Amino acid sequence: MIKCPKCETRLPESTINTSRLEACLACGVMIRADAFPALIRKQSAVQTGELLQAENEASCFYHPKKKAVVPCSVCGRFLCALCDVELDGCSMCLTCVEAGKNQRKIKSLENKRTLYDNRALSIAVVPMLFVYPTIITAPIALFMALWYWKEPSSIIPRTKIRFIIAIILSLCQIAGWLLVLWFFIR
Amino acid sequence: MKAPKEYLRLPGKHKDLMGNYFHLWCARDHLLSVSYRFGDEYYKRFYYKDIQTIIIRKTVMGKVQNGIMGGMTLFFGVMAFLTGDIGAVIFGILALSTTILLLVNIVLHGPTCESHIQTAVQKEKLKSLKFLKKAIKSADIIKKHIQQNQGVISAQELRTAFKAAPSSEKTVNVDEALPLPQHSNIHSALFIILVLLGLSGAYGFFYQTVVVSFIEMLLCLGASVIMVMALVRQYQIRIAGSIRAITWATLGYICIYLGCGYVLYIFFLIKNPTLAHNQWKLFKTMAALSPLSHPLLTGIGVFTISGALILGIGGFFLLRRLK
Predict the structure, then answer these.
(1) Given this model, what pLDDT does residue B168 score?
(2) Are residues A121 and A179 in the same domain?
(3) Which range has highest mean pLDDT (A83-87, A162-166, B305-309)?
């Protein structure tokens, strides 16, 4: 059931779903606890797959002795209940799920993304504090911003403004260094 | 027509000292917890159909932060008043900055909290929800999404489920529970002594006499003894978390107070070795020292006075309010 996060004592039902802060009867901290039907829902039994009853029945691609219940919506292989992975309303086999995760084709499986726009901006901004490193970092930031322009960014809404600022700053830094060089040669 | 956004941002964000950044987003069928670390974003999904509970626990962190900030403001303010020229400007700017931070903390952020989300197989802390106002606002939005997905749990269903739950877990009966928070006389005494210590320190700051120094020393010893008793006592009774925190802060304060006193004593002995054999004379000479004679002494003086008054008055008012 629901426990107080501080003292681990079970909270009484009178303190749950009140939509306001209630004191934990054991430790006195103020808690708001919202419970939902999933708390009392019984867990469904794990599907292990039914064995083949007759020879003319379709079998699972991965478990030939088990009865196929659904085809994989990506590769079309027949799957038993054990191999069937339901994702975003589609049935998939584990191989396609893994391939989809590795190739970033299934968005809901992605758990990490590199934000190249932030990296390019950091490379363009931070060395400005020390001035001289910008002779090396400005071209790196510019290259990074252009190279990764089309790379998928965050999965949450995000604009290209960081890339744009990084490009502008690095161009300014490069122009500054070229100007210094020009004065030096003259 | 513009298509609806896939993710909608929830109120609340948290940035830690390492530059890590946490925020929450709501999607059609799941809640997305995003954490940013050194140019990479990490995602954790909580599907509405799986969420069992959302728990928000109020913490005393905000009060502690405000107390520290208030103490610093007072300290910088007094230092700005006591020092001249550039010192006054620097301390004045510092005092102003801490005042602004304090006001922002009080007015915009409010009390702090810890938020957890629980599913059948995990209990995760939502780091972005650390301020109570925003946590409640976010919890209300998440609650709506979950209720659209799962429906509403009735009081009857909840009661039945609680009755059927295994009784091996640690529980507290409503009838058996003691009224909260419980009052403690030891804590009252501690806060009164702290206020007295602050007042005597303030008096001694301007008028140095042996009697005041002696009273101050006695009060400090008294506060140390009572503080230990209060720390033991608060483990035996149910007392508000804020009072607990202030008592622990008092332990820190007294340690610093005694540490500073000891350092001064040793420093004074090194400077005046002839007084080492006559403790009474040494005490009288030390008592006659003006805190305004040296910036270090002024700093220690301001810290001890403001610390004792903040902890004492704060604790006393909290106790009165809870009573």
Answers:
(1) 53
(2) yes
(3) A162-166
Q: Where are the alpha helices (DSSP H) in A129-185?
A: 134-147, 161-185
Closest CA to B257 of B223, B282, B232: B223
Q: Is a pLDDT exceeding 50 seen at residue A63? A: yes
Give yes or no: residues A101 and A55 share one domain. yes
- Residue A168 inside a domain? The answer is yes
Judgement on whether residues A60 and A87 belong to the same structural domain of the protein:
yes
Residues of chain A with C-beta less than 8 angstroms from the C-beta of B118: 2
pTM more than 0.90: no
**Residues of chain B below pLDDT 70:** 1-4, 166-183, 323
Q: Among partner residues B9, B58, B159, which is closest to A29 by beta-carbon distance?
A: B58
Same domain membership, residue A55 and residue A22? no
Task: Domain count for chain A, please give it.
Answer: 3
Confidence (pLDDT) at B323: 64
Q: How many CA atoms lie within 13 A of B200 on its CB side?
A: 20
* Residue-level pLDDT at B53: 92
pLDDT, average across residues A110-122 = 91
- CA distances B247 to A25, A61, B106, Å, are 21, 67, 22
The residue-averaged pLDDT of A30-51 equals 81
CB pairs under 8 A between A and B: 151
Query: Is the domain of B142 the same as that of B225?
Result: no
Q: A177 and A133 in one domain?
A: yes
List the domain range (segments joined by +) for residue A89. Answer: 49-111
Contact B179, A33 (CB under 8 A): no
Residues of A in contact with B6 (CB under 8 A): 157
Query: Do residues B97 and B20 share a domain?
Result: no
Q: Kindly state whether B319 is in contact with chain A, defined as any CB-CB distance less than 8 angstroms.
A: no
Residue A162, in any domain of the structure: yes
Is B54 in contact with B115 (CB distance < 8 Å)?
yes
Interacting residues of A70 by C-beta distance below 8 A, sequence separation 6+: A78, A79, A84, A91
Domain that holds residue B99: 61-109
| B56, closest residue in chain A (CA to CA) | A32
Residue A36: exposure state from Cβ atoms within 10 A (0-12, 13-18, ≥19): buried
ipTM above 0.95, yes or no: no
Q: Does residue A171 lie within any of the structural domains?
A: yes
Domain annotation covers residue B172: no
CA distance B255 to chain A (A): 27
pLDDT at residue A142 greater than cutoff 50 = yes
Is residue B120 domain-shared with residue B102, that is, in the same domain?
A: no
Q: Does residue A176 form part of some domain? A: yes
In a domain, B202, yes or no: yes
Q: Tell me what pLDDT residue A138 has.
A: 95
Provide the token pair at B87. Answer: 């010192």
